UniProtKB/TrEMBL annotation:
This is Endonuclease. GO terms for molecular function: nucleic acid binding. PANTHER family: INTEGRASE CATALYTIC DOMAIN-CONTAINING PROTEIN (PTHR37984:SF7), PROTEIN CBG26694 (PTHR37984). Residues 1044-1053 have a biased composition (Polar residues). Residues 1094-1103 have a biased composition (Basic residues).
Length: 1110
C-alpha cells in the first residue's frame, strides 16, 4: 500500500510511477506508431495538486504536451468576448480538482476592462460556493466567469472558471477534462476498499446524486402535420392553491425544467396538479390533444425474459434509480413550444422531456440504452438500473464503470431509492437472487390474507377464483371437494375446522406455486378491477403463448367505513385507482387496458373532467398520469377482480386518501342540516340514495318507475354526507325547491342566466321549466321588460281605383299649421295651410274644400288626434258618407304612409324657393320606372310643368298600376319583416290580465283586456284606476303572474283590421256604440302603416340567444 488516505495501491500515481511510465511507453508504441509527434503523458503527483481526487482511477491522456516537471499541460482554444478571433490558453489537468480555477493575474491579462481601480474584478457572477484545498484551507475567490473552450476538434464548451487568488497555473477539473476529451477513465477496484452501501457511493460521486441530470443529446418531437393544433381553454384555479402552484413553478424554472414564454404558440395545454403527502404540489402536463398529434418512434425495449439469462450465477446485486429521468432529456427549441402550458401566472414551456407524453417512454428508454451500451453487468428498464456480479470485486468494478459512464453522460440518480450490494433484488415483478428467479413475494401476499368466507355466496366467489387458476394447482378437484360440498342446495352453511384447513391449503399452494407469469414489457397489459360493498379487487393480466389471459399479480383491499358509503360508481372507480396505483411499476409510462364490469364508467371517462362529481373528479385526476383505455366486461367474466373484491385482504383496510373537500356546498350549517333532513324525508330521494349506494339493477325493467327520469344521468349521481349530488350540483328535495328558486332569481336575471346559475350548484327534475315559469311570472321582471319587437308588417289594402281611400294628418313647419291629404292609390298629395288655431271645425272646413274639388273618398284614415276623434268629425263623416278609420294610439307606424309623405313635403318646403312649383314637379315625377306620376294616375292626364315634354299619354292601364303598387308593397313588407319577429303575437282574450307599456316611464303596468278596438292588433284595456286605454298589441304583454286567473270560458277577441270599416271612439261620450267603451282623453294617435324602408343588411340573431329572456 502507498499508505495514503483513500488511495488504491494498484493505481497510486506516486508509488507506481515508474511502472506506469514503462507501461504507458509500451502502450504508446502500440497504437501511436514510430516517430509519432503526439505524446502520452504519465502524471506524477506534484505538491500543488489536490489529493482528494478519485484516486481509484487510472488516467491516460491524448495530445498533451509535457514539461520538465512532468505535469499535464493542455493547450486550449478559447474565445474572449472583448477580443476577436480564437486564442490559446495553457491549463493544467488536475483530475483531483472538482472545479476549474483561473488565477487573478491571468484574469487581469484577459479582461483588463473588468477591473476596478484597485485591480479587483467586478461584475462577476457570485458562485455561492466555498473552495477549499485538501488540508481544509479556504481558497479566496472573486466569482465565476464563463469562457468558451475546446481542445483540438472537440465541440465548443461553455466552461465555468472560478477566479481565485493563486500563484499557480490555470487548472481544469475532472469534469471539464472529461467533457473536452482530455481524460478517459478506466476503473480498477481495490479489494481492500469495497463499496457496500449508498453512502460510500454518494461520497465517491457527489455530483451524480439527488439533482436533475442533463443528458448530452437533444431530442425533437415529431407532430403529424395533418393534425390541427389546439389551445386548451383556461381552467379555473382554486385561490388557496395559487401560492403552492407558483412556488412549484418557480422551483421547476430554477431547475431548468421549464421556462416562461410570451411569444405565441400553436399548442397550449393545461396543467393538472396533485397534492403530495408533504402538502406540496406536483405539476403535471395534460397533453391529451397533443398526444394524439405526436408520432411515436416506437422504440422497442428489452423484455424481462430477454434479460433473465444475464442473472445466471450472479451473487451480488445493486439497484439504482434515475433521478427525474424524463427531465434529464433536453428538447430542442421547436419541441419546447409544443409543450407550452398555461397557468394563472402566464405560459411556460418544458425545456426537458415532460411526463405524460406518449413518446416520453420511447425517448427515455432510447437514451438509457445508449448510456448503458458497453456497460458490463448492468441492465435497465425505464428508470430502474440493476448492476450485478459473480464476485464482490466484479460487482464493484461493474458499478464503478456505470457511475463513470453516468458522470460522462450527465445521468443523475436518486440516492433514497438505491440499494447497494444486496444478495437479492426486486426488478420488474421478479426477485433475483443467487438461488435463482422467483415471483416477488409481495405480489401474492394478498392471496394469503384473504378473509374466510362468511356465506355460500362468498365461498362461491372463492372457489370461482380457485377454479380459474386450477391448472396451477395439482389435483385441485379433490383438494376443493370439501369446500364444494357446502354449496349444495340441501347443505347448511356451517364453517368447521376442516373447511378452514382446506381453505388455508389452497391459499398456500396458490401463493407458493409459480403460478404468476413473468411480466413481459412488450406484451399488452390488462388490469381487471372490481368493487363490492366490502372491498376492492384488482388483477394484473397478460396473454400467455396460447393467447389466454394469465395473472401477473393480485391486489385486494377492504373498504373503510367511509368508503363503504360511497356510491356504486365511486367504488368502482376507486377500484381502478387502487389497481392502477398498486401496479404503478408495471403500468406507468405505457399504454394498458382496464377491464371493469361497471358500464357507466365508460361514459364518465368520455365526459370532460369538470362534468364529473367532485370525488370522481379527484380520482380521475389521479389517473391522468397513466395512458389507458377502459373496456367493459360482465361480472361473470370478471372473476379474478370480483373474487378479490368480495374477499378482500383483511390486512389492507386503510382508506385511500382522496384529499376531498366538501365545502363547495355553500349553505349554513342549519341549511345543510335541513337539506339532509328533507332529503331523508323525501320518499323518492331517500329511495334513490339507497340505489346509488348499493348499485343500479342490471336491467332497466327492474328499475322503479319513479327512477325512469333519472336513468339518463344515473352515472353522475353520488351521495355525500346524506346529500345527493349530480356532478357538482346538489339535488334539492321538493320541499326546498320553491325557496331555492327565489334565491336563484335574487338578481332578477333572465331565464338563460338563471339556468346557468342553477347549473353551477343545484338540480332537480324539470328545473328548467320551473325556472322559466318563475321568471315569466315574476312581477318585477314583467314590469321592467323592454319593449316588444315589431310584429310582421300588416299593410293596408291597396285600393282598386284613385281617390277611394285617402290618408290625412296635421303637421307644423316654421310656425304654420298644415293639413295634408294623400291618395293611397295614386300617392297624389294635397296640401292646405290652416289657421293658427287648429280645431275640428278648421280641419273639417279644409277637408270639405278638398273633397269638393276631388270628390268624396270612400274611406279616410287618420290618427287619434282630438281633431279627428271629436264628435264633430264623426258627424262630418256620417253626413258626407265616408268611413273614418283611426289607428292605434302611441304607434306612428300605423299611419306610416302619410307620415312618410309629411317627411318629404317638409324637405321640399325647407329647400324650395317656390313651394307650389316644387309641389307640381313632385306630383308630375314618376313613382318608379314602371309607374307613372301621381298626377297622371289620379287625373288620367300628364300635367304640364316647366320642363319640355312630349305629347301626353293618358292610356294608363289600371291593372298594371294595381299590380305595380302591390309589388312595391310586397318589397316593403319583405324588408320590414327582416327585423320583426317571425310570427304575430297571440290574440288576447276578454278579461285577460295583461300589462301595457307606459310611454313615459317605459314600465309595464297592469291592465285588463276589455274589448277589441276596431283595429287589427288593437285592444281596449282598463287600468286598475278604471281608465280605458286603447293600445296596439305590440304594447301589450300577458301578465303571466295572473295567467292562471283567466277562466276557461274567456273568449278570444278577434280585433278588426285598421283598414276595415268601424266606428271611431270618441272622448265626448256622445253616440258611442255600446260595444266600444269610452277611451281616456290621454290617448294619442298612432299610424298603422310603417314608412317605406331602404334595403338593409339581413341581421340574424345567434341561435344560442333564442331562449334568452330578459
Amino acid at each position: 500500500s502507498c499508505k495514503k488516505l483513500g488511495h488504491y495501491a494498484r493505481v497510486c500515481l506516486t508509488t507506481k510511477f515508474k511502472q506506469m511510465k514503462d507501461r504507458n511507453q509500451t502502450k504508446q508504441s502500440s497504437y501511436l506508431g514510430d516517430n509519432d509527434r503526439r505524446q502520452v503523458l504519465n502524471l506524477e503527483e506534484s505538491p500543488e495538486s489536490h489529493q482528494d481526487a478519485h484516486l481509484f482511477s487510472q488516467l491516460s491522456f491524448d495530445v498533451i504536451d509535457a514539461d520538465q516537471r512532468k505535469e499535464a499541460i493542455a493547450r486550449l482554444q478559447i474565445k474572449l468576448s472583448n477580443r476577436p478571433g480564437i486564442h490559446n490558453l495553457k491549463a493544467k489537468v488536475d483530475t483531483g480538482a472538482q472545479a476549474n480555477t483561473l488565477p487573478l493575474r491571468t484574469f487581469r491579462n484577459m479582461f483588463p476592462e473588468q477591473l476596478n481601480e484597485h485591480g479587483v474584478p467586478q461584475s462577476l457572477s457570485d458562485s455561492g460556493t466555498v473552495l477549499s484545498a485538501y488540508n481544509g484551507t479556504e481558497i479566496k475567490q472573486y466569482g465565476t466567469v464563463v469562457i468558451p473552450c475546446r481542445y483540438n476538434d472537440t465541440p465548443w464548451n461553455d466552461t465555468q472558471f472560478y477566479v481565485v487568488q493563486s500563484d499557480g497555473p490555470v487548472i481544469l477539473g475532472i469534469q471539464t477534462s472529461v467533457q473536452l476529451g482530455l481524460v478517459s477513465l478506466h476503473c480498477i477496484v481495490n479489494n481492500q476498499s469495497p463499496i457496500n452501501d449508498v453512502e460510500t457511493l454518494v461520497r465517491l460521486f457527489p455530483q451524480q446524486f439527488d439533482r436533475i441530470g442533463e443528458l448530452h443529446n437533444t431530442h425533437h418531437l415529431v407532430v403529424d402535420p395533418n393534425f390541427p393544433s389546439h389551445v386548451d381553454a383556461p381552467r379555473k384555479t382554486p385561490i388557496a392553491l395559487k401560492g403552492k402552484i407558483k412556488s412549484e413553478l418557480d422551483k421547476m424554472e430554477e431547475q431548468g425544467v421549464i421556462k416562461k414564454i410570451t411569444e405565441p404558440t400553436e399548442w397550449v395545454s393545461s396543467i393538472t396538479y396533485v397534492t403530495k403527502k408533504d402538502g406540496s404540489l406536483r405539476i403535471c402536463l395534460d397533453p391529451r390533444r397533443l398526444n394524439k398529434a405526436l408520432i411515436r418512434p416506437h422504440y422497442r425495449q428489452q423484455t424481462v425474459e430477454e434479460l433473465n439469462h444475464k442473472f445466471h450465477n450472479m451473487k451480488f446485486f445493486s439497484k439504482l434509480d434515475a433521478k427525474c429521468g424524463y427531465w434529464s432529456v433536453k428538447l430542442d427549441e421547436e419541441s419546447q413550444k409544443l409543450t407550452t402550458f398555461q397557468t394563472p401566472f402566464g405560459r411556460y414551456t418544458f425545456c426537458r422531456l415532460p411526463f405524460g407524453l406518449i413518446v416520453s417512454q420511447d425517448i427515455f428508454q432510447l437514451e438509457m440504452d445508449r448510456i448503458l451500451e458497453g456497460c458490463e453487468g448492468a441492465v435497465c428498464i425505464a428508470d430502474d438500473i440493476v448492476i450485478f456480479g459473480r464476485t464482490s470485486e466484479e460487482h464493484d468494478q461493474n458499478l464503478m464503470n456505470l457511475m463513470n459512464t453516468a458522470a460522462q453522460q450527465g445521468l443523475t440518480l436518486n440516492s433514497s431509492k438505491c440499494a447497494i450490494k444486496q444478495t437479492s433484488v426486486d426488478f420488474f415483478g421478479n426477485r433475483y437472487s443467487r438461488e435463482g428467479m422467483k415471483p416477488d413475494p409481495k405480489k401474492v401476499a394478498d392471496l394469503r390474507t384473504m378473509q374466510t368466507p362468511r356465506n355460500k355466496l362468498e365461498l362461491q366467489h372463492f372457489l370461482g377464483l380457485m377454479t380459474y387458476l386450477s391448472h396451477f394447482i395439482h389435483d385441485f378437484s379433490s383438494k376443493a371437494a370439501v369446500l364444494r360440498d357446502l354449496l349444495r342446495k340441501d347443505a347448511e352453511f356451517i364453517w368447521e375446522p376442516h373447511h378452514q384447513v382446506a381453505l388455508e391449503k389452497l391459499k398456500q399452494e396458490i401463493s407458493e406455486s409459480s403460478l404468476l407469469q413473468y411480466f413481459d414489457t412488450s406484451s399488452p397489459v390488462y388490469v381487471q378491477c372490481d368493487a363490492s360493498l366490502q372491498g376492492l379487487g384488482a388483477a394484473l393480466l397478460q396473454h400467455d403463448q396460447e393467447e389466454k389471459l394469465q395473472p401477473i399479480a393480485f391486489a385486494s383491499k377492504a373498504l373503510s367505513s367511509t368508503e363503504q358509503r360511497y356510491s356504486c360508481i365511486e367504488r368502482e372507480l376507486l377500484a381502478i385507482v387502487f389497481g392502477v396505483e398498486r401496479f404503478h411499476t408495471y403500468l406507468y409510462g405505457r399504454s394498458f387496458t382496464v377491464i371493469t364490469d361497471h358500464k357507466p364508467l365508460l361514459m364518465i371517462m368520455d365526459k370532460p373532467l369538470t362534468a364529473a362529481p367532485p370525488r370522481l373528479q379527484r380520482m380521475l385526476i389521479r389517473l391522468q398520469g397513466y395512458n389507458f383505455s377502459i373496456k367493459h366486461r360482465p361480472g361473470q367474466d370478471n372473476l379474478l377482480a370480483d373474487s378479490l373484491s368480495r374477499l378482500p385482504s383483511i390486512c389492507n383496510k386503510q382508506a385511500i386518501d382522496l384529499d376531498l373537500r366538501v365545502d363547495f356546498i355553500q349553505f349554513s350549517s342549519k341549511k345543510q342540516d335541513e337539506l339532509k333532513q328533507q332529503t331523508k324525508q323525501d320518499t323518492m330521494l331517500s329511495a334513490l340514495v339507497e340505489v346509488i349506494i348499493t348499485g343500479w339493477p342490471d336491467s332497466i325493467k327492474e328499475v322503479q318507475p319513479d327512477f325512469t327520469t333519472v336513468l339518463s344521468y344515473r352515472d353522475e349521481l353520488t351521495v355525500c354526507d346524506g346529500v345527493i349530488l349530480k356532478g357538482f350540483q346538489v339535488v334539492i328535495p321538493k320541499q326546498m325547491q320553491a325557496g331555492i328558486l327565489q334565491k336563484l332569481h335574487t338578481s332578477h336575471l333572465g331565464q338563460q342566466k338563471t339556468k346557468l346559475l342553477a347549473r353551477e350548484c343545484v338540480y332537480w327534475n324539470n328545473i328548467n321549466k320551473d325556472i322559466e315559469r318563475m321568471v315569466q311570472s315574476c312581477p318585477a321582471c314583467q314590469q321592467q321588460q323592454p319593449a316588444q319587437p315589431a310584429e310582421p308588417l300588416l299593410p293596408h289594402e291597396i285600393p282598386t281605383k284613385p281617390w277611394s281611400t285617402v290618408a290625412t294628418d296635421l303637421f307644423e313647419l316654421k310656425g304654420k299649421q298644415w293639413l295634408i291629404v294623400v291618395d293611397y292609390y295614386s300617392k297624389y298629395p294635397i296640401l292646405q295651410q290652416l289657421s293658427d288655431q287648429v280645431s275640428s271645425n278648421t280641419v273639417i272646413s279644409a277637408l270639405k274644400k278638398i273633397f269638393a274639388e276631388q270628390g268624396i273618398p270612400s274611406k279616410v284614415v287618420s290618427d287619434n288626434g282630438p281633431q279627428y276623434s271629436s264628435y264633430q268629425f264623426m258627424m262630418f263623416a256620417e253626413s258626407w258618407g265616408f268611413t273614418h278609420v283611426t289607428t292605434s294610439p302611441r304607434r306612428p307606424q300605423g299611419n306610416g304612409f302619410v307620415e312618410r309623405q309629411i317627411r318629404t313635403i317638409k324637405s321640399i318646403m325647407k329647400k324650395a324657393s317656390d313651394i307650389q312649383l316644387a309641389l307640381l314637379h313632385w306630383r308630375t315625377t314618376p313613382i318608379s320606372e314602371s309607374l307613372p306620376s301621381p298626377a297622371e294616375i289620379l287625373m288620367g292626364r300628364q300635367l304640364r310643368n316647366t320642363l319640355p315634354s312630349k305629347s301626353p299619354n293618358t292610356n294608363v292601364a289600371a291593372d298594371h298600376i294595381y299590380n305595380q303598387l302591390q309589388q312595391r308593397q310586397n318589397v316593403q313588407k319583405y324588408y320590414f319583416d327582416q327585423h320583426a319577429r317571425r310570427s304575430e303575437l297571440p290574440t288576447l282574450s276578454n278579461g285577460q290580465k295583461s300589462r301595457i307599456l307606459d310611454p313615459g316611464t317605459r314600465l309595464w303596468k297592469p291592465a285588463t283586456v276589455v274589448a277589441g278596438a276596431g283595429g287589427e292588433r288593437s285592444y281596449v284595456l282598463q287600468s286598475p284606476e278604471g281608465r280605458l286605454l286603447r293600445r296596439n298589441r305590440q304594447h301589450i304583454r300577458p301578465d303571466l303572474s295572473e295567467a292562471e286567473q283567466v277562466t276557461e270560458n274567456s273568449q278570444e277577441i278577434p280585433s278588426k283590421a285598421d283598414n276595415t270599416d268601424t266606428d271611431t271612439l270618441t272622448t265626448t261620450g256622445v253616440d258611442v256604440p255600446p260595444s266600444i267603451p269610452n277611451i281616456s282623453p290621454q290617448q294619442e294617435s298612432s299610424p298603422h302603416q310603417p314608412p317605406a324602408m331602404r334595403p338593409k343588411r339581413n341581421i340574424r340573431r345567434p341561435r344560442r340567444f333564442e331562449d334568452y329572456v330578459t
